[in-house]
Amino acid sequence: MKRSPLLVIFVTVFIDLVGFGIVIPVLPFYVEGTQFDASPRAVGLLFASYSVMQLIFSPVLGRLSDRYGRRPVLFFSLLGTSLGFFIMGFATALWMLFAGRIIDGITGGNISTAQAYIADVTTEENRAKGMGLIGAAFGLGFIFGPALGGVLSRWGAHVPFLFAGALALANAVLLYFVLPETVGPGHPARAPAAAGRWSQLAGALRRPSLAFVLAVYFLFVTAFSVMTSSFGLFTLYRFGFDAHDTGWIFAFVGVVGALVQGGLIGRLVRAFGEPPLVIAGALMFAASLVLIPLTGPHTGTAALLSLGALFALGNGLATPSLTSLASKSAGAGEQGGVLGVTQSVASLARAVGPLVSAALIYSAVATVGRDGRPHNMSDRSVSLTFWAAAAIMFVAFLLAAYFARAYAPARRGGDEVVHAGGA
Q1: Of 222, 235, 281, 417, which shows the fewest CB atoms inside 10 Å?
Q2: DSSP reduced 3-state for 368
Q3: Burial code of 138-161, b = ≥16 C-beta within 10 A, e = fewer?
């Protein structure tokens, strides 16, 4: 395995996720500041705009990397990410925030290109290990991103965005001088796409087992996105937390999730199989979403952290198990296509989740005074967003239970256990 190129790819994905994580605790406070004076609905739309652009342009970047090479696509995507963050950091109007998020979303959909690069430089024997770098970068980025966002916000809500922009720019320079190109004239990616690829993929999606897995995965990521896009506002209104405090809570959740996905999931899958873990994860996830709105100053921060750990445990059990099930539902020649569809499903869910949150949290804070503080935090409306996400997760639980009963027993016999990174 070529360690140096893979290290650059790891850093690229890690910085993407650090930038994504930085935004989570800071953006609600930044957008609602006196300079922009935007509504909570705008926060959800800003989160959604990034994911919508990724959904649309991630396949485009993948095709461009096949045609022109991985290196230029990754290089220019990092420049775009840097530009997007700088625009947000120097923004003086709300439309500039949207412009920055949209640019970052368009150029930030480079995960598929990074995976293609890993496939180019690894053999079949160590490809799974190489692909594991993507999952590791996701986990570490989600740990360090929110924590950095919270710490840097002490010097101003705009500082985390400028830091993320400088980080992406430095990574682009590193990539330009270190990363070799892998798509040469004789590379298979240069060949025209097979005519039957999309029909083959459509046939795979018509298989009920895969359809169920993708449906459950979509609901998981949607609920996750509803929670993350509204959590900052919730902690502000309920606990009086700022971006610094919220960032550390997200970092704690990320650590728990990384421990589960990095250390426990392999042994648990071997012991119980994926479907039971998905079911257990859905129940834990739903329970945490039901109980989080019941916390407040009267319960203390410990209760919030405990429920955050339960949330991370449920997500950590279910998400890699679902990715493994999606892989097992496809033949050897369909792996790339099916896993690509899985990423598209996740991107769509990350767009839908903030939109749902934007609509629900707008009604949840409709009674907030013009000073930005709620008049009555015991009102049940503040719980609406989290309980809606819990309802989504309960539907996911029902689908997972049906899947385990209808499809899993027939598939367990000689299947090889597969592990995959988180969402």
Answers
A1: 417
A2: strand
A3: bbbbbbbbbbbbbbbbeeebbbbb
The whole-angstrom separation of Cα 168 and Cα 174 is 10
Q: Are residues 214 and 174 in the same domain?
A: no
Domain for residue 189, yes or no?
no
Q: Would you say residue 102 lies in a domain? A: yes
Domain count, the chain: 2
As beta bridge partners, residue 368 has 374
Structure tokens at 423: 């969402």
Neighbour tally for 383: CB within 10 Å: 18
273's CB contacts (< 8 A; 6+ apart) are: 408, 412, 417
Q: Does the residue 140 lie in any domain?
A: yes
Q: Which residue(s) pair with 374 in the sheet?
A: 368
The answer to whether residue 422 is domain-embedded is no
17-54 pLDDT, tens digit per residue, is: 787 778 777 877 777 665 676 766 777 778 778 878 87
φ, ψ (nearest 5 deg) of residue 374: -75, 145
| pTM metric for this prediction | 0.69
Query: Can you give the residue range of the structural domain that contains 272?
Result: 197-411
Q: Give the three-state DSSP class for 156.
A: coil
